[in-house]
Queue: 2 jobs
Job 1
Amino acid sequence: MFIYADNAATTKMSRTAIEAMLPFLDGYYGNPSSLYAAGQKAKEALESARADIARCIGADPREIIFTSGGSESDNQAVLSAAFAGAGKGKKHIVSDTIEHHAVLHTLKKLEREGFEITLVPVGENGIVRAEDIKAAIRDDTCLVTVMYANNEIGTIQPVKEIGAVCRERGVVFHTDAVQAVGHIPVDVNADNIDLLSASAHKFRGPKGVGFLYARRGVRLYNLIEGGAQERGKRAGTENVAGIAAMSAALKEAVGNMEANSKKLCSLRDRLIKGLSEIPHSALNGDANRRLPSNVNFCFEGIEGESLLLLLDDKGICASSGSACTSGSLDPSHVLLAIGRVHDVAHGSLRLTPGEDATEAEIDYIIDSVKEVVERLRGFSPVWRDLVAGKKEFIL
Ligand SMILES: *Cc1c(COP(=O)(O)O)cnc(C)c1O
């Protein structure tokens, strides 16, 4: 048995995306900036990918900048709005406590350079309220950055409402939509978005390529200086094969979104129901306003890391906290932000099955997790204390 249930970390490339890539690896390998025909073929592919990607999020092709992925897009978006703001004496930024580190660490860096950052807390359901964002905006706020959907607990934020608040106050609004694009409907105009980050490997495209949407008129700061590629906003010879594959993957994901989402929501709810039967467990994040494939649980009295190792023995790929936090002793900042105490946050498990998963596989995951949790609790001193009444159960 091999079940890949870690699609929030990365996805398997779709066959269509792999095939879209091939012609630019061995046939049309020319530099898109070159004038001869082989280069122009690459240039055409680049521009047709730009148009297709723009259409998928309701943007104009001139508003799409190709980058190396979600992290780069997040860095460029946040720094662009910050530096443009600083030029007008506005050095305050509003965000929330469950952002990806690509945003949080960029904000930390800005804080060291004299910016003031307000991180609005989320509720126990893992959702930030638009009213709270509104209340945090000041006259000197230059940017609001709130993710579309969370990578750990899958909660979907009220992006449209937050965008409307920003529009009203004349503040630039960025959203890290890396987990949303290709999975749930995203429209930069309907959602009032000024800057948006996306990454191909989260929607079955290749790793190391992504894009930044920047609404016309929003000033950009260049992270990378050099040639005049990407309208002078991102230097470096374009990753033509990767971009062609990203566009193919996104078109496919958007085309199949309704069907995939329906199937995944049903598998997700089956998984949630099954795991809820484990005593002293709890679902993390809102049960309804969450991504179609995200399931995240805490199990009291165990360590997430050991859980992952034993699940791996059973052929199940899952994650604890996030890929970035695993390997470190700190529990996930997202789980702490929704009010999980350290001990409980350590016993977390994220399962994000793919659209090709079956009910039988979901049932196998449920049985495996039940068995492994029971086994781990059997030799956990913390669990022994809980059962003996020396410690109080939290869940
Ligand atoms: C994966 C992820 C990123 C980083 O994207 P990369 O392409 O891996 O750099 C940023 N934000 C969120 C929400 C993510 O899930």
Job 2
Amino acid sequence: MRDALLLTPGPLTTSLATKTAMLHDWGSWDSNFNALTASLRQRLVALIDGGEHYTCVPLQGSGTFAVEAAIGTLMPRDGKLLCLVNGAYGKRIAQLTEIIGRQVSVLDFGETAAVDPARVAEALVSDPQITHVAVVYCETSTGILNPITAISEVVAAAGKKLIIDAMSAFGALPLSANNLDFDAVIASSNKCLEGVPGMGFVLCKTAALEQASGQAHSLSLDLYQQWRYMEQTGQWRYTPPTHVMAALMVALDQFDAEGGRVARLARYSANCQTLIQGLQEQGLQSFLPEELQAPIIVTVHAPAHPNWNFSEFYQLTKERGVILYPGKLTSAETFRIGCIGALGQAEMQIALDAIAHALKKMDICL
Ligand SMILES: *Cc1c(COP(=O)(O)O)cnc(C)c1O
């Protein structure tokens, strides 16, 4: 039987080919595995048109480990971060920056608006101590798309350095070093690249990394050391996520075969549209206005009905082979449906049918 469809922000549904790529054991010292690492690093740099100026530092762990490593390594100990927040992932960056003992100032836009570049420009003028700015490309807690091109322009104009958490956007939304200035972009294996969970990676300006020796707060989350070791030996510092790497390589082959980022974005956009329209036909409303909605994950208002209960709804859709995701908002009761993963129109229809079935069982007539 097919696994349940994961309509979640990751881990997400992977293809059979990607899963099958994990049926081998790899020695961490072996030249085949080193070649795999080198090739993956190059392919990831190529995805942002990073050319000679950027390098890829992969890191064991989930995406947050890579975010923490990037902030801790790239910021000098006396640096100050301006953290742009419009949801839980932005808040998480502010929190981890504070925990590792770097100064952080938060610019909060609430949960229902995109980051406003004009306010970022003002904040940079009013606080000259700021050295770095962090922004989330697609704020996965709501699905909001942030205007990173305009943000990168004001950050560059102020002479500051930009760190982009592109976790849920990388591989689908546009992101190129040719038209965007940033010191680092962070993403992971298990979102739009449709690999399995277990590693993050940071695409860094090599010049920024070269200056980062001794800055990290942590041994294992030191990207500079990870990078130096990899450059010198071709190997990972500490046990590599061998199966995750093998799966990501095959996932990237499928990404290329599909037609790359543009084709992937087109598939996710179609998924998103089908979902929003199908939900509307059932009387369910998506949370965000169209202009803020990234085609990554859709937040949906919970039905205003006395029978509504997310746990019961979740169980009922699960019985139909569809896994949904709870909401993450403080201001409204919502749930979320992912548009990403190895899923297309047929799967969106299965999800919509499962939702209709669940509402009917719960006696919710909208
Ligand atoms: C998924 C995600 C992360 C990382 O989450 P992990 O659970 O640590 O993998 C970070 N930022 C954003 C925007 C994300 O979507």
